[in-house]
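Run log // design_07
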C-alpha cells in the first residue's frame, strides 16, 4: 500500500490557482513538510513514518506566486497524435495505424509546423498524396493548431481518473 500511494500523481497549482504541473506524491509531501504549499484536495490514503503521518494530496497550491513562462510543446509524431486524439483527421477513424500528413505538401511549400501536420490513416494519406485539399474531395475534421500545455495535464483526468482536477484544468 505504501508504494501505491507514492506512485500517485499530484496537481500543483500556482497561488492564483493556475495549473503549473503534475508532480509525484514524494515531491508534494516534501513541499508540504517545508511549508511551501497548502492542501487543496486530499485523498483517503496516508503515508506514515515512525513519527509522522501525512494524508496523500491530490491537489496542492503554492503559498507564493511564481511567474512562469510555459514550456513549448515539442513538435513530434507522438504529440501530433496526442493533439489529434489518435483520430484520422480526414475520415475520423480510430484504432488504425496512423501516419503524419502535411496538409500543404512539402513540394507545394508546406512546412513542418503544428498548423500543417495532422494525423492521417494510411488510406487517407495515400489518397491525398501530394495534392492540396482544394484539389481533392477531402476535408479536415478540425483545423490543426498548436496545442496548449493544459492538454497534457487534462490527459491524466481522461485516462487515470483524477476527477477532482477537472475544475482546475478548465474541464467543467
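design_07 sequence
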Amino acid at each position: 500500500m505504501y508504494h501505491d500511494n507514492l506512485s500517485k500523481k499530484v496537481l500543483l497549482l500556482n497561488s492564483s490557482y493556475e495549473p503549473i504541473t503534475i508532480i509525484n506524491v514524494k515531491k508534494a509531501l516534501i513541499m508540504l513538510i517545508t511549508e511551501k504549499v497548502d492542501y487543496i484536495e486530499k485523498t483517503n490514503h496516508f503515508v506514515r513514518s515512525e513519527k509522522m503521518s501525512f494524508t496523500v494530496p491530490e491537489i496542492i497550491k503554492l503559498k507564493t506566486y511564481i511567474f512562469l513562462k510555459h514550456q513549448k510543446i515539442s513538435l513530434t509524431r507522438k504529440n501530433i497524435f496526442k493533439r489529434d486524439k489518435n483520430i484520422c483527421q480526414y475520415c475520423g477513424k480510430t484504432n488504425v495505424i496512423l501516419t503524419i500528413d502535411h496538409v500543404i505538401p512539402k513540394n507545394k511549400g508546406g512546412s513542418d509546423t503544428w498548423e500543417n501536420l495532422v494525423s492521417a490513416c494510411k488510406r487517407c494519406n495515400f489518397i491525398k498524396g501530394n495534392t492540396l485539399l482544394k484539389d481533392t474531395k477531402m476535408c479536415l475534421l478540425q483545423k490543426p493548431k498548436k496545442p496548449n500545455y493544459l492538454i497534457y495535464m487534462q490527459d491524466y483526468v481522461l485516462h487515470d481518473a483524477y476527477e477532482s482536477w477537472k475544475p482546475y484544468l478548465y474541464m467543467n
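The helical segments are 2-6, 25-33, 77-83, 122-128, 150-160.
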